[in-house]
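Supplementary Text 2. Reproducibility record for the structural model of the 275-residue chain.

All settings were left at their defaults, and a single model was retained for analysis rather than an ensemble. We include the record here because the model underlies the residue-level annotations in Supplementary Table 4.
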Amino acid sequence: MPILRACKVVGLSRSMWYYQSKKDDIEVIEKLTELAESYPTRGFDEYYHKIRREGLKWNRKRVLRVYREMKLSLRRKHKKRLVKRVKQPLETPEELNVCWSMDFMSDALTDGRKLRVFNIIDDCNREALAIEAGLSYPARAVVETLERLKEEVGTPKFVRCDNGPEFISKTFMNWCKKNFIEIKYTQPGKPMQNGYIERFNRFFREDILDAYYFNDIHQLQKISDNWREDYNFNHPHKSLGNKSPKEYMPRFDEEFKFFIKSDLNNNYLSKFKVS
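Retained model, structure tokens:
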């Protein structure tokens, strides 16, 4: 079909058929791409002012049109860069206070408030050294817990943890450095590199967090303390020859060679009363 007849059919003038835009936005695109790569968190206004400061005379409407066509106005999510972590083998120390594993758990109270639980175990005998609950648990609280354990049982040579904000904070790292403790970070997305504490977390969630409702932190902390004592004295581990942590390797001489405490032989809930 001739072009003239085709234009008449669709109601288009022949001049429009032959029209070619003289707009060339390549330079604008290249400049906006450069700015977006250099300043990924900035917006159009700052990009435009930078363009004008460089003496480029492109008008605002043109730059804005190209900016929108490039979809630069879409919100971009940026991940915080972490130091590359080296895979650390999960080894079982032969002595206490060689390596402690630590991790956080999250849940909620009956009124919907979020809570966090901070757990620490000794990799040697899987003893639960601390189970601390709070509505929030910043790095300062982590250090306070470690200071308390320092007075009670000493400090480890290493601590194993993930890349959570509490563990990569200067407060935590400075405390470890001050106490000559090396931090073994797991690689992002590899929780089983901290398998001992992950297994412990599963036991705690099944027995406590998923089993009961809590109205306040005090209730959770009280039952957690009783559960921790029962776990340390009575919970058998296949990897420990079906012995409990305290039975496998007591931390102090008064923690007998083989035992099941009479007051712990009952269910740990026997001591728990809802106030």
